[in-house]
Amino acid sequence: MSPPSFRRRPGLSASGPGGAGGLTLLLRLLALPLAAGTDCPCSEPALCRPIRHRPDFEVFVFDVGKKTWKFYDWSQITTVAVFGKYDSDLMCYAHSKGARVVLKGDVSLKDITDPTFRTSWIAQKVDLAKAQYMDGINIDIEQEVNCSSPEYDALTALVKETTDSFHHEIEGSQVTFDVAWSPKCIDGRCYNYTGIADACDFLFVMSYDEQSQIWSECIAAANAPYNQTLTGYNDYIKMGINSKKLVMGVPWYGYDYTCLNLSEDHVCTIAKVPFRGAPCSDAAGRQVPYKMIMKQINSSISGSQWDKYQQAPYYNYKDPDGHFHQVWYDNPRSISLKAAYMQNYGLRGIGMWNANCLDYSGDAAARQQTEEMWAALKPKL
Ligand SMILES: *[C@@H]1O[C@H](CO)[C@@H](O)[C@H](O)[C@H]1NC(C)=O
Ligand SMILES: *[C@@H]1O[C@H](CO)[C@@H](O)[C@H](O)[C@H]1NC(C)=O
Ligand SMILES: *[C@@H]1O[C@H](CO)[C@@H](O)[C@H](O)[C@H]1NC(C)=O
Ligand SMILES: *[C@@H]1O[C@H](CO)[C@@H](O)[C@H](O)[C@H]1NC(C)=O
Ligand SMILES: *[C@@H]1O[C@H](CO)[C@@H](O)[C@H](O)[C@H]1NC(C)=O
Hints:
Elements: H1 3-6, H2 21-31, E1 58-63, E2 79-82, H3 88-96, E3 100-105, H4 115-131, E4 136-139, H5 150-169, E5 174-180, H6 193-199, E6 202-206, H7 226-238, E7 246-251, E8 253-258, E9 261-262, E10 268-269, E11 285-289, H8 290-296, E12 305-307, E13 312-318, E14 324-328, H9 332-344, E15 349-353, H10 364-375
Parallel strand pairs: 1-2, 1-15, 2-3, 3-4, 4-5, 5-6, 6-7, 7-15
Antiparallel strand pairs: 8-11, 8-14, 9-10, 12-13, 13-14
Helix pairs in contact: 2-4, 4-5, 5-6
Bound molecules: 2-acetamido-2-deoxy-beta-D-glucopyranose (NAG) (5 copies).
One 2-acetamido-2-deoxy-beta-D-glucopyranose binds next to helix 6.
Domain GH18: 1-381
InterPro entries: Chitinase_II/V-like_cat (IPR011583), Chitinase_insertion_sf (IPR029070), DIAC_cat (IPR047898), GH (IPR017853), GH18_Domain-Containing (IPR051887), Glyco_hydro18_cat (IPR001223), Glyco_hydro_18_chit_AS (IPR001579)
Organism: Castor canadensis (American beaver)
């Protein structure tokens, strides 16, 4: 497990856009002479039209593939960012529910300082979105950028040019950009946050992986602690970013840490795995989806515990080799607390990495668990 690819997120196990390569080429060859609608894969040609409705409240969902999207709570979803393989059934279905479907945008930062490269990258993405009847793009860079580097301004320019181009070419389209939980150069990502926020429709704030750089004691801690999460939003707002430009991202996964030592008061010491200058990081742990966590919790040695400082649940278990583990995660209780803040501060909406993490098998316990997670996103009236 190498930290850089490990941290390609919003992405735990993101398969990336590469999976659609062959299809992409085919569609590009086919796309040129096609007027929208002539090869529409949906039952109704109207379902291939871009979504134009602008919701007051966003529920922004990342999908990494598989067919679980059929079981999502479509009464809430406004946008699906497709990080798995393109699936025309998903596009048709989302459009039938009035939800946008957007591409993943990822690019190597050393290339984008060349304006010609940017232009051709953007043209390629616009063509792909048109060929697949999609409604925009979610730009997910997550790479290190230094303040006075050429990439710093080039990144802002890329976002601006992408937005202009999409808005011009695809009516009603949406361009968004993924940022870390705080604007304070997390993981070396020193971007022009205000410039980028102005240049796109909104930022998706990845309020998770908040232990990616642990500067204090190397101990297991929450993926998205309440106070730390809120501090991030306060910092974005303080720098002048309108709260309506921010969508709160919550994790539907947790971290499983192997403890070097687990004390009686549940302090789990972890191995030192450095990340971008910090002595230890969550790369010492392993990401686990909520459905796995819920399957394991009853066989844990502690049962679910609540940390009142971080306002997050965790549990301890012993593996077959006798090693102790501590698992930190988010559940409806911890997510509701953050969602309440999202509502009070008038943020644009909420979303998660990623929607596939729940148990959609449909048995009674799984159904209840899954409904509760979706319900936790809803603003309370
Ligand atoms: C940013 O600056 C640091 C320290 O000067 C350097 O080590 C790093 O390679 C730079 N990163 C990039 C992406 O230029
Ligand atoms: C950020 O980008 C905006 C728009 O391009 C620009 O006006 C501003 O000066 C930039 N800020 C910094 C600190 O570079
Ligand atoms: C390790 O855990 C044991 C058992 O809880 C505890 O007594 C001990 O103080 C811990 N050691 C360290 C170095 O934290
Ligand atoms: C775990 O225990 C709870 C409460 O006893 C129960 O409701 C739930 O179904 C159990 N989950 C599993 C996966 O066995
Ligand atoms: C969270 O931060 C606030 C101040 O911003 C502080 O008053 C409060 O005690 C903190 N809560 C916890 C649980 O640490």
